[in-house]
Amino acid sequence: MTEPNFVVFDTVIENLDDVELVDRPWGEGDNPKTAVAEFLKTNSDIVVNHEIEERLWISIAPGGYLRRVKLTRDFSNCDNLVV
Q: Which partner for 31 in 4, 7, 13, 40 could form a disulfide, CB atoms 3.0-4.6 Å apart?
């Protein structure tokens, strides 16, 4: 892979029960995974890299493996992404 890759850790928090999040400043709807979702809305050149996640049996970063993709022509149209 020549595209830059990066990881947002602790996205698994979105899937944990409230009991497991006692005394934590985050929870469902307010955690790294929701931050990734907001980030992806405004950064069309970044996508979730499912290839990495599919190779893992367990992860603390589901949906947090990201990569930059090259854009062609119209930057506002996601149909023009070259992956």
A: 13
